[in-house]
Amino acid sequence: MSQTIEEQNKALVLEAFDTLFNKRDYAAAARYWSSNYLQHSAHIAPGRDGLFNLIKSIPPTLRYEPGTIVADGDVVIVHGRFSGFGQPVNWIVADILRIKDGMLVEHWDVIQDEATREQSKSGLPMFGDTFPQ
């Protein structure tokens, strides 16, 4: 049974993020990110090079954990956690990506510092089932 375009795009984003953020394989990551990549994030310099150079500047302890992922046609949104990047607090991020011809071509994000149990007014973690340690 063949996958829908949404299933293909979600799998592409998850593989791309793992390749770049966790494995730090820049040559392989270049196969996922378009050379004409448009970056709308306030935290990242323009283009694929801006993203790759940012990751190269972050400690090797960087870890990305995907959570909920949804897709609608050529747009994928993944809710995930970035940790180990040299800041005192993890980031919970909703990454919004546009896919074209099997490549990531455009990106937006919404970023929040991850709340501790004591900071959470709801009493629930922002990501997954547990609070950060």
Which helices and strands, and how do they pair?
Layout: H1 5-22, H2 26-29, E1 33-39, H3 47-57, E2 63-72, E3 75-83, E4 91-100, E5 103-113
Parallel strand pairs: 1-5
Antiparallel strand pairs: 2-3, 3-4, 4-5
Name the features.
133 residues; alpha+beta; five-stranded mixed beta sheet; 3 helices; 5 strands
Short description:
With 133 residues, the chain is α+β, with helices and mostly antiparallel strands.
Question: Could you please describe the fold and organization of this structure?
Answer:
By secondary structure, the chain is an alpha+beta fold. The protein is built from three helices and five strands. A hairpin with a 2-residue loop joins β2 and β3. The longest helix is centred in the N-terminal third of the chain and has 18 residues.
Provide the low-confidence segments as ranges: none
Mean pLDDT: 96
Shape, principal axes of CA atoms: globular
Q: How many strands, which pairing sense, and closed or not: the largest β-sheet?
A: 5 strands, mixed
Q: Helix count, per DSSP?
A: 3
* Structural classification: alpha+beta
- CA radius of gyration is 15 Å
Strand portion: 35-45%
Helical percentage = 10-25%
End-to-end Cα distance, whole Å, is: 42 Å
N-to-C series of helices and strands: HHEHEEEE
